[in-house]
Design brief:
It comes from Falco tinnunculus (Common kestrel). This protein has helices spanning 2-48, 58-106, 119-127, 150-158, 161-168, 170-182. The chain is mostly helical and 183 residues long.
């Protein structure tokens, strides 16, 4: 048992080591991704936002403000256009999903009911009225006459079992049974 305990301890230690190694790798990957995002952000800002050079005169400042306002307006127009497109596509998606829901609802299959149908009626329904196939299975059966046997007559004659027991009870009943057995 001590061998198994040592083996278990070694396995848990190995698992702990592997976990810590994986966590270290994940931490370095996260740091690399953060650094890459920061570089990408700096490149984007350098490309789209030129460095700000403040002019010295009031007229140059007013022109700079006019340019900035023009850029803001163009960006707002683009944002508004994209929002309108997004709303339009969302509306189309809702309409299509509603149509799909309606179609599913229309063609919901009802629970099937058992229909009693003879074999002839089934064949007529499947093949049409042109084909006349007779599947009357009862017509092919033989007629058997039932013969009355003596046992069945005796059973019918016995009738109510209570009367039968009353007749056989007592000395007279035993006498009748004895006489019936002799004859």
């Amino acid at each position: 048992s001590s061998f198994l305990q040592k083996k278990r301890r070694a396995a848990t230690a190995r698992r702990q080591h592997l976990k810590s190694a994986m966590l270290q790798l994940a931490a370095t990957e996260i740091e690399k991704e953060a650094a890459a995002k920061e570089v990408e952000k700096q490149n984007y800002l350098a490309e789209h936002c030129p460095p700000l050079s403040l002019p010295g005169s009031m007229q140059e400042l007013q022109e700079l403000c006019k340019k900035l306002h023009a850029k803001i307006e163009s960006v707002d127009e683009e944002r508004y256009d994209t929002e309108v497109k997004l709303q339009k596509t969302n509306k189309e998606l809702e309409d299509l999903s509603q149509k799909l829901f309606d179609l599913r609802g229309k063609f919901k299959r009802p629970p099937l009911r058992r229909v009693r149908m003879s074999a002839d009626a089934m064949l007529r329904a499947l093949l049409g009225s042109k084909h006349k196939v007779c599947m009357d299975l009862r017509a092919n059966l033989k007629q058997v006459k039932k013969e009355d046997t003596e046992k069945e007559k005796d059973l019918r004659d016995v009738g109510d079992w209570r009367k039968n027991i009353e007749e056989k009870s007592g000395m007279e009943g035993r006498k009748k049974m004895f006489e019936a057995g002799e004859s």
